[in-house]
Write a structure and sequence with these properties.
- The chain has 706 residues and is of the alpha+beta class.
- Among the domains are: 148 residues, Neurolysin, domain 3, CATH 1.10.1370; 66 residues, no CATH class; 35 residues, no CATH class.
- Helices cover 55% and strands 7% of the residues.
- It contains 28 helices and 9 strands.
- The strands form 3 sheets. Strands 3-4-5-9-6 form a 5-stranded mixed beta sheet, sandwiched between helices. A two-stranded antiparallel sheet has the order 1-2. Strands 7-8 form a two-stranded antiparallel sheet.
- Strand 4 and strand 5 form a beta hairpin.
- The protein is globular, with a radius of gyration of 25 Å.
- The two termini are 34 Å apart.
Length: 706
């Protein structure tokens, strides 16, 4: 999941269009500007040439409106915060489609436009965030008697805004403000280049096979998808890429070790050489983040990152991760030893390497549990999975989900759905873009399209989400068949979507996922993954593609038994990433002798039991922390997993579809957005602080003596 902007996030205005926007709309029917007043973005009409004129007009109006706000010298909600909310909402409504299209329809024409637009927006945000008069007005509002009458939502929005002012350099002197602004501009540019380099490096490699002997071990569905990929590229044979739906099954099933090595090496060295080398960008990003943090009085970038999160300090995070590592390591060492022995004795691989691990693990899983992920795919056809996913949400929260055919979309594969309340009234909506394709960023995410907000004219704006995955598309006349892991990914992103769509908050900056601490925002998504494992929920969607029969009990038992397969190794791998991220942002010294690779090597010395080869350059494609919102925050996945597992344990105690528990979860977690302290929200739901036991139990790592 990623947000539209990172850093200072306080404000947004559809109100009557300003003079510059009116002129731009009269001069040229710009669909981006028209989208400001339409129900949904006009995705089917937006072109790269529309972006900069629309943005220039918008920012001109923003600056005029800001000047009017300051001239009025208001320091109450209607005169100050409401028009500022409107400015931010208008800006988000215009930029969100552009940012989204850059991720899902990347093109040579859009890239420079997106990059220039991002620089313009970063400059505007810095200008807004460092405005001394605006900061002073906000402080006067906070100190006034009126503040006590605002209510929880609006008070939280003011508090968050003041915090973000400080984190954006509002208290710096003029020279330092200019330098801080330059740093933010440069960081935006570097993050964009980092992500584009990863995308280009991923796209630059493909494995084209014409000898069927090279396909030994690959399931029919994987072969068919590869043949379709080759056909679309105008080539004979089979084509494999570094996109997850192609790369992962190839590494799990291909018996040709040399080809696995070629695929692994290409994947592990993405964006690490030549003109796409992210190495210099990473070093500059870390240097600038550290400089910005010290300018604001923090010891390092990690401390600055945690200023908006639940965790109190880098030391607290690293203690948390190391405690999980200590609990997981004995199991992980046993699993690694077992894997090496199996590879040597059963597969003839005496020197188990990184490119052998997925293959050997899948073979071991099949040996132990007598099934593979491929065996499950016929029970997870796309129509049944979507129907079941929606049924889970409907049973939990009393909503209805219906597809709409007339929504403007950016690709023929994209679908739009309305979310209705129990009486059929519209609550929210979401786009679903499920398949991998060229020019689409890899991975899966949820993003804001439109935010729930009570407009100044009193109308309630309903939220809309983007749900994006990269699964294999249907082959021939059959529906797409997804792995159980892909089903979990879909449930995960839909959990984020429910957090955004089921909010009850009407104040823009704390609505949905806004204002939610980064280390708590994964709770609703990880919570939803649990519904992929229980018989009662699986029966809603695990239906055979040909017969419609439910998942056989024998296969379900095998799947459940395999749930904790290599859970120790998986836990340590995630901890490795999180500890590397936190140490990098807490300790990296651009003037010191230790390189980024040195930090990663030290973390692996401490945590890993399966070491990658020396040529591995995983960090060069670690977009989460170098181009996303997870800098000094990757630990959030594990932190939030503790919260999610403990939250789901309440449903296990009362019934996974228990109406009362679901009502409390919706009202205390999903509905409150960032309007309430998240620990207080969790305790209101659970009745106590979170415990780690449920996470360890779900992962099969809870020692009976604990």
């Amino acid at each position: 999941m990623r947000r539209l902007f990172r850093g200072w996030e306080a404000w947004r205005l559809p109100r009557p269009a300003g003079a510059a926007i009116v002129r731009a709309m009269n001069d040229d029917a710009n669909p981006l500007l028209s989208s400001l007043s339409s129900e949904l973005p006009l995705f089917d009409s937006i072109e790269p040439g529309h972006v900069l004129p629309a943005l220039e007009a918008l920012l001109a109006d923003n600056r005029a409106d800001l000047a009017a706000i300051l001239e009025a010298e208001a320091c109450d909600w209607p005169g100050l915060m409401q028009p500022l909310e409107a400015i931010e909402e208008r800006t988000q409504r215009l930029w969100s489609p552009v940012n989204h299209l850059n991720a899902v329809c990347d093109s040579d024409e859009l890239r420079p436009v997106h990059r220039e637009g991002l620089m313009m927006l970063t400059a505007w945000q810095s200008e807004l965030a460092q405005n001394e008069a605006l900061f002073a007005a906000m402080r006067r509002l906070r100190e006034s008697a009126d503040f006590q009458t605002l209510g929880e939502e609006r008070q939280a929005a003011v508090e968050h805004a003041l915090r973000d002012f400080r984190l954006s350099g509002a208290e710096l002197d003029a020279d330092d403000k200019a330098r801080f602004r330059d740093i933010q501009m440069r960081l935006s540019e570097l993050a964009t280049r980092f992500e584009q380099n990863v995308l280009d490096a991923t796209r630059a490699f493909s494995l084209h096979l014409t000898d069927e002997a090279d396909l030994i071990g690959l399931p029919d569905s994987v072969r068919q998808a590869a043949r379709e990929r080759a056909r679309e590229a105008g080539k004979p044979g089979w084509l494999f890429t570094l996109d997850a739906p192609s790369y992962i099954p190839f590494m799990q099933h291909a018996e040709n070790r040399e080809l696995r090595y070629r695929m692994y090496r290409a994947h592990a060295t993405r964006a690490s050489s030549g003109k796409l080398d992210n190495g210099p960008l990473m070093r500059e990003i870390l240097t600038l983040r550290g400089e910005a943090a010290r300018m604001l009085g923090f010891a390092n970038a990690a401390e600055m990152s945690l200023a908006t999160k639940m965790a109190g300090s880098p030391a607290e995070v690293m203690d948390f991760l190391r405690d999980l590592a200590a609990r997981s390591r004995p199991r992980a060492e046993e699993e690694a030893a077992e894997l090496r022995a199996f590879a040597a004795e059963e597969l003839g691989i005496a020197d188990l390497q990184a490119w052998d691990v997925p293959f050997a693990s899948e073979r071991l899983r099949q040996r132990r549990f007598d099934f593979s992920e491929e065996d499950l795919k016929p029970w997870f056809p796309e129509p049944a999975v979507l129907s079941g996913l929606f049924a889970v949400a409907e049973r939990l929260y009393g909503v209805r989900i219906r597809e709409r055919q007339d929504a403007p979309v950016w690709h023929e594969d994209v679908r739009f759905f309305d979310v209705l309340d129990g009486e059929g009234h519209p609550l929210a909506g979401f786009y679903l873009d499920p398949y991998a394709r060229t020019h689409k960023r890899g991975g899966a995410w949820m993003d804001e399209c439109i935010i729930r907000w009570r407009r100044p004219d009193g109308r309630l704006q309903r939220p809309v989400a983007h749900l994006v995955c990269n699964f294999e598309r249907p082959v021939g006349e059959r529906p797409a068949l997804w792995t159980h892991e892909e089903v979990q990914t879909l449930f995960h992103e839909f959990g984020h979507g429910l957090h955004h769509m089921l909010t009850a908050v009407e104040t823009l900056d704390v609505s949905g996922i806004r204002g939610v601490p980064w280390d708590a925002v994964e709770l609703p998504s990880q919570f939803m993954e649990h519904y992929c494992w229980h018989r009662e929920s699986l029966d809603l969607f695990a239906r055979h593609v040909d017969t419609g029969e439910p998942l056989p009990e024998e296969l379900y038992a095998k799947m459940k038994a395999a749930r904790t397969f290599q859970s120790g190794l998986q836990m340590l791998r995630q901890i490795e990433f999180a500890l590397f991220d936190m140490r990098l942002h807490a300790e990296f010294d651009p003037e010191g002798p230790a390189a980024i690779q040195d930090v990663l090597d030290e973390v692996r010395d401490e945590v890993a039991v399966l070491r990658p080869p020396a040529f591995n350059r995983f960090q060069h494609s670690f977009s989460h922390i170098f181009a996303g919102g997870y800098a000094a925050g990757y630990y959030s996945y594990k932190w939030a997993e503790v919260l999610a597992s403990d939250a789901f344990a309440a449903f296990e105690e009362n019934g996974i579809f228990d109406a009362g528990t679901a009502r409390r979860f919706r009202s205390e977690i999903l509905a409150v957005g960032g309007a309430r302290d998240f620990m207080q929200a969790f305790m209101a739901f659970r009745g106590r602080p979170p415990k780690v036991d449920a996470l360890l139990r779900h992962a099969g790592l809870l020692d009976e003596r604990d």
